[in-house]
Amino acid sequence: MRAYEITGPEGVDALALTERTLPVPGPGEVSVKMQANSINYRDLSTIESPVGRGFDFPRVPNSDGAGTITALGTGVTGLQVGDRVASCFMQNWPAGGITSGVMATALGGAVDGVLAEEVNLAAGGVIHFPDHLSFQEAACLPCAGLTAWNCLMVQGDMKPGDTILLLGTGGVSIFGLQFAAMCGVRVIITSSSDAKLARAKEMGAWATINYRDNPEWQEEVLRLTDGKGVDIALETGGGGTLPRTIDAVRVGGTISLIGVLTGGDINPTAVMRKSIRLQGVYVGSSQMFADMNAAISASGLKPVISDDFSFDNARDAYHAMRAAGHFGKIVITM
């Protein structure tokens, strides 16, 4: 079977498409014929800057995939050949809080990922996905979908009547918009593209802000909320945008820090003075995934796919991620 491999620090165009022999799944493992992957900024940054991440070459990239189980290792229960499943970002995080041991099971980093025609995964590291979703749509769930769910439903304790802030229109933010709309929550979303903001408005965003036209966009957030600020913010930018996000959140509000796209430093004084909860979020557990899937099944929600690339042209998907023209998720069909 074919698989892409990171073989050094030369970047996307140096991804090697190789032939691998897939071993028989070991005890507690399943073999999955991959039908689709989706990519995240984390996958791109791993390929572009692999040195110092603590893994050996070669390494198969990507954490997010969906496919069909083709074989079961000994001791596997609750799964069978033919099941449609998605990968879990962390192969060993059934429930509870994150630990260093959990982080050591992250696909596409600590261990081989899923950009391959067939992979062996932990039986506890796959999950049935909602019946109404395609493989491509299901492949969008493991990182971006679950991260947004964790930020809003678990860390943020989101409830009807809340107002949330989403930065940009990438995968996490668009899932955040969909989950918020599902729960009767007001969304303020930012982008540098009026066309993307118009799409977000059509999807239920309450207010939109073009941050190129409004570089001090936190002031517009405060104006929209009568000076109070939002209840929850999903901070995908990092140090470069975090000071404005802190200004835009209400006293006692929550910021989930999930991205490091922009550099910069912050002064923690405002976090203290406003009693803000600033929480780093690294995806979520299998139990959270199951809870999210139940909500997706009940609501009929479908992930938003921006672009779909073939397996043979997988490198182009990462270039599209770098170009940042997407709205929602970028997928790769096997």
Write up this protein.
It is a single chain. This protein has helices spanning 41-48, 100-103, 135-138, 141-155, 171-182, 194-202, 217-224, 242-248, 269-273, 286-299, 314-323, and strands spanning 2-5, 16-19, 29-39, 64-72, 84-87, 118-122, 126-128, 163-167, 186-191, 207-210, 230-235, 249-257, 277-280, 305-310, 329-333. With 334 residues, it is of the alpha/beta class. The protein folds into two domains: 2-140 and 303-333, Alpha-Beta Complex (Quinone Oxidoreductase, Chain A, domain 1), CATH 3.90.180; 145-280, Rossmann fold (3-Layer(aba) Sandwich). Strands 3, 4, 5, 6, 7, 14 and 15 form a seven-stranded mixed sheet that branches. Strands 10-9-8-11-12-13 form a six-stranded parallel sheet, with helices on both faces. Helix 7 (217-224) runs parallel beside helix 8. The protein is globular and about 60 Å long. The mean pLDDT is 96.
* Outline type: globular
Instruction: Round the mean pLDDT to the nearest integer and report it.
Output: 96
Can you tell me the number of structural domains? 2
Portion in helices: 25-40%
Helix count, DSSP H or I runs of 4 or more residues? 11
The ordered H/E elements are: EEEHEEHEEHHEHEHEHEHEHEHEHE
| Class from helix and strand fractions | alpha/beta
| Broad CATH class of the largest domain | Alpha Beta
Span between N and C termini? 12 Å
CATH architecture group name of the largest domain: Alpha-Beta Complex
- What fraction of residues sit in β-strands? 25-35%
Q: Find the CATH topology of the largest domain.
A: Quinone Oxidoreductase, Chain A, domain 1
Biggest β-sheet strands, sense, barrel? 7 strands, mixed
Low-confidence stretches: none
